[in-house]
Write a structure and sequence with these properties.
Residues 1-142 form the C2 domain. This is RASA3 protein. It is a single chain. This protein is of the alpha+beta class. It has 19 helices and 19 strands. A hairpin with an 8-residue loop joins strand 3 and strand 4 (59-60). 32% of the residues are buried.
Length: 714
C-alpha cells in the first residue's frame, strides 16, 4: 500500500474563558510508493479522530495529480478533550482517561477517480492516542495498511471461505566476495565425478521439493553460462540409472525440474512468437470445438465441431514443427545432450533419441502452454470455460502427436478422442515431428565422438556460382544438389553422388541475402567462409531462400568467429558493388542481420541466487548432517544401506563427504555474517525513519524505543 510521513503534536490551548484545552495537530507531510490504479494515481488523504463514543468529521487534503509520491504538507487540528458542561463550569473537565486511550487518529489515502463508482481506496493508517502519553510530539514514517473491515456486519459465512498458503521470503544479499566459497563449489558441479557428489546435486537431494532447488540453481548457472554442462551431467547420470527407455525422464527428478525451469526462462520469447497469435485468435473467435457427444450444446453439430478442432490442431502443429529455427540455443544444446545420452544408453531403441527430447519440448513446454496460456504470459487472464475446453482438447492432441508412441489410440481414455485422432494417423505427422526434433537437438553439435550418424536437416536442388578466386574469366552458374547436416554443408551433381564441395559448419561465418543487382538474379543468398571466400547460391523461390538462410544461420549461430559485418553485394570487376572498395579482403560495409534469437538475455542477480541457495542449505542442515553420517557409515561402503539413508543417492561416499564438508563450512561462514549483520542492524535501526517505516508488528517496538529515549533524557 505504500507509506506515509506524519507528524503528531498534542498541545495545550487556553480558551477565551481561561480554560485549558488539549488539541491534536496532525501534519500530513508526504507519501511514497502508493498503488497505481488503472494506470493513474491522483491521491489525496483524509484524517479523522475517532473514539468509542464520537467521531470527528473527516478532513481532506488537496488532490495531487499524476503522482504516487505526493507531497501534501497540510496540518489538521482536532479537539481531544472538552468540558463536561460549557455553561455551568468555568474549568475544563478532562474526559475519562480510559476513553482517551481508546481514541485513535485515522489517515486514509484515496485515488481521486472520475468513474461513477467513486474514489478508489489506496491504504489506511490507525494510530492510538495512548502512545502520545510518552511524548507530546512524534514524527515518523508508517506503512499504510489494507482496509479494516472489522466494523462491517458481514457474517463469516456470507461470502464463503478461501484457504491460502502464503510464503514470504526475505533475504539480505551481501556483496559478491562473501559468496565466493559457496558459489565456487556450486559452479564446479558439472565437473565433479560422479555428479551425485556435486554441491548442486546434493541440494536437490536434501530439499523437500526438487523445484525448490531447481529455481535458484538454474538461475545461477544461466547467469554464469554453466547451465548446459550442468544439466548434461545430471541428465547423463539419470539416464544411466534408467532401466526402461519408455520411462526416460518421466519422474519429477532434479534433471526434469531444472530443464522445466530453463525452458520457462529461456523459452518465453519463443512461446510468444510461436503460439501467441493463434492462441489470441482462439480466445477471441470462440468457435465451438466440443467433440464429446455428451457435452454438445443445443444447436451444435458434432462434425462441424470436429472440423473446427482439426483445423486448430493442424495450425498449431504446423507452427510448432516449423519453429525449430527460433528455438533458443541454450534449449537446443540441452536437447542435444539428452539425445546423445539416451542414444548411447539404449542403442537398440532408435526412437529413444526422439522421445528423450519430445518428453520435454511437447509434454512439458508446448502442451502446458496451450492448456494454461495465462501461466506462460500468452494471455492476461485464465480463458473462459468454452475456450479452456477447446485448449484442453488441442493440448491433448498435440501432446500425443509429439510423443511418437506406436499405439496412439490407446493413449486416450475417451473414445471420442481416439476417434478424433484418426485424422492425424498419417506418417507425415510423425515425419514432421522427427524433423523438428532433429533440428532443435542438433544445434551446437560439436562432439566428433558422437555415436550417431550426422542428422540430415535439409536438402534440394539450387543454383550455385563457382567459388574460384581468379580475377579474370567466367564463373559459371550450375545446378547442384545441396545437402545440410548438423556437421557440414555440401553440394554434388546429383542426389547420392560424391560431394564436390564440403563446408564444415564451424567454417560458416555468416549467411546473408545477396542484392539482386549483383547478378541480376532473384532469391540469392551468400554463405561466407574464412578468408572472405563466398559461396553465392540461388534458391528456387523466396520461400526456399528464407528457409535455407534460417536453417543455415541456426546451425552456425554459435560459431566463435561469426562476422559482424558483410558486403550485401558481390565483388565484381575489381570492386565491391555495394561500397566500391577495390580490395577483395575489405571488411564488410553493412552490419550482419540479427538473424535468430540465439540466447535470451535474462536479468539475473547471481549473488541473490547464491543467497537463496545458502538459505536452503541452512534450512536443511539436519539433512546435510544426516547425509554426512550416511557417507561415513560402513553400511554405505560395504553392506546394504540402512533405511534412514536409503533416500540419498551416494555413488561415491568419499567425494560426497568432501563436498558436504565444503558446503557446511561455507554455510557456517555465511551464517556468522548474517548474525553479525542482524546485530548491527538492530543497533542502527530507527523505527519511524523513511528506511524503516512503522508497521503493525514494529509499532510496539517503536513505542518501547521512544520510551527508552525519553527515560534516558529525563
Amino acid at each position: 500500500q505504500g507509506k506515509v510521513h506524519l507528524e503528531l503534536r498534542l498541545s495545550e490551548v487556553i480558551t477565551d474563558t481561561g480554560v485549558v484545552c488539549h488539541k491534536l495537530a496532525t501534519r500530513v507531510l508526504e507519501c511514497q510508493g502508493l498503488p497505481i490504479v488503472n494506470g493513474q494515481c491522483d491521491p489525496y488523504a483524509t484524517v479523522t479522530l475517532a473514539g468509542p463514543s464520537r467521531q470527528s468529521e473527516a478532513k481532506k487534503t488537496k488532490v495531487k495529480k499524476k503522482t504516487n509520491n505526493p507531497h501534501f504538507d497540510e496540518v489538521f487540528y482536532f479537539e481531544v478533550t472538552r468540558p463536561s458542561s460549557y455553561n455551568k463550569k468555568s474549568h475544563f473537565d478532562i474526559e475519562d482517561v480510559d476513553e482517551v486511550d481508546k481514541m485513535e487518529i485515522r489517515v486514509d489515502l484515496w485515488n481521486a477517480s472520475n468513474l461513477k463508482f467513486g474514489d478508489e481506496f489506496l491504504g489506511e493508517l490507525r494510530l492510538p492516542l495512548k502512545f502520545l502519553r510518552q511524548s507530546s510530539s512524534y514524527e515518523a514514517w508508517y506503512f499504510l495498511q489494507p482496509r479494516d473491515n472489522g466494523n462491517k456486519s458481514l457474517k463469516p459465512d456470507d461470502l464463503g471461505s478461501l484457504r491460502l498458503n502464503v510464503v514470504y521470503t526475505e533475504d539480505h544479499v551481501f556483496s559478491s566476495d562473501y559468496y565466493s566459497p559457496l558459489r565456487d563449489v556450486l559452479l564446479k558441479s558439472a565437473d565433479v565425478e560422479p555428479v551425485s557428489a556435486s554441491a548442486a546435486h546434493i541440494l536437490g537431494e536434501v530439499c523437500r521439493e526438487k523445484q525448490e532447488a531447481a529455481i535458484p540453481l538454474v538461475r545461477l548457472f544461466l547467469h554464469y553460462g554453466r547451465i548446459v554442462p550442468f544439466i548434461s551431467a545430471i541428465a547423463n547420470a539419470e539416464v544411466k540409472r534408467t532401466q526402461d527407455p519408455n520411462t526416460i525422464f518421466r519422474g519429477n527428478s532434479l534433471t526434469s525440474k531444472c530443464i522445466d525451469e530453463t525452458m520457462k526462462l529461456a523459452g518465453m520469447h519463443y512461446l510468444q512468437v510461436t503460439l501467441k497469435p493463434i492462441i489470441d485468435e482462439i480466445c477471441q473467435v470462440h468457435k465451438p470445438c466440443e467433440i464429446d457427444p455428451v457435452k454438445l450444446k443445443d444447436g451444435e453439430n458434432l462434425e462441424n465441431n470436429r472440423e473446427n478442432l482439426r483445423q486448430y490442431v493442424d495450425r498449431i502443429f504446423t507452427v510448432i514443427t516449423k519453429s525449430g529455427v527460433s528455438c533458443p540455443t541454450v534449449m537446443c544444446d540441452i536437447f542435444f545432450s539428452l539425445r546423445e545420452s539416451a542414444a548411447k544408453r539404449f542403442q537398440g531403441d532408435l526412437d529413444v533419441r526422439y522421445t528423450a527430447v519430445s518428453s520435454f519440448i511437447f509434454l512439458r513446454f508446448f502442451a502446458p502452454a496451450i492448456l494454461s496460456p495465462n501461466l506462460f504470459q500468452l494471455t492476461p487472464h485464465h480463458p473462459d470455460p468454452q475456450t479452456s475446453r477447446t485448449l484442453t482438447l488441442i493440448s491433448k492432441t498435440i501432446q500425443t502427436l509429439g510423443s511418437l508412441s506406436k499405439s496412439k489410440s490407446a493413449n486416450f481414455k475417451e473414445s471420442y478422442m481416439a476417434t478424433f485422432y484418426d485424422y492425424f494417423n498419417e506418417q507425415k505427422y510423425a515425419d514432421a515431428v522427427k524433423n523438428f526434433l532433429d533440428l532443435i537437438s542438433s544445434s551446437g553439435r560439436r562432439d566428433h565422438k558422437s555415436i550417431e550418424q550426422p542428422i540430415l536437416l535439409k536438402e534440394g536442388f539450387m543454383i550455385k556460382r563457382a567459388q574460384g578466386r581468379k580475377r579474370f574469366g567466367m564463373k559459371n552458374f550450375k545446378k547442384r544438389w545441396f545437402r545440410l547436416t548438423n556437421h557440414e554443408f555440401t553440394y554434388q551433381k546429383s542426389k547420392g553422388d560424391h560431394p564436390l564441395c564440403s563446408i564444415p559448419i564451424e567454417n560458416i561465418l555468416a549467411v546473408e541475402r545477396l542484392e539482386e543487382e549483383s547478378f541480376k538474379m532473384k532469391n540469392m543468398f551468400q554463405v561466407i567462409q574464412p578468408e572472405r571466400r563466398v559461396l553465392y547460391i540461388q534458391a528456387n523461390n523466396c520461400v526456399e531462400a528464407k528457409d535455407w538462410i534460417d536453417i543455415l544461420t541456426k546451425v552456425s549461430q554459435c560459431n566463435k568467429k561469426r562476422l559482424t559485418v558483410y558486403h550485401p553485394s558481390a565483388y565484381l570487376n575489381g570492386h565491391w558493388l555495394c561500397c566500391k572498395a577495390t580490395a577483395d579482403n575489405t571488411p564488410g560495409c553493412t552490419p550482419c542481420t540479427g538473424g535468430l534469437p540465439a540466447n535470451i538475455q535474462l536479468d539475473i542477480d547471481g549473488d541473490r541466487e547464491t543467497e537463496r541457495i545458502y538459505s536452503l542449505f541452512n534450512l536443511y542442515m539436519p539433512k546435510l548432517e544426516k547425509m554426512q553420517e550416511a557417507c561415513g557409515s560402513k553400511s554405505v561402503y560395504d553392506g546394504p544401506e540402512e533405511e534412514e539413508y536409503s533416500t540419498f543417492i551416494i555413488d561415491d561416499p568419499k567425494e560426497t563427504y568432501k563436498t558436504l564438508k565444503l558446503i557446511i563450512e561455507g554455510v557456517g561462514t555465511l551464517e556468522q555474517e548474517h548474525a553479525q549483520y542482524k546485530r548491527d542492524k538492530f543497533k542502527k535501526t530507527k523505527y519511524g525513519s523513511q528506511e524503516h517505516p512503522i508497521g503493525d508488528k514494529s509499532f510496539q517496538t517503536y513505542i518501547r524505543q521512544q520510551s527508552e529515549i525519553s527515560a534516558h533524557s529525563i
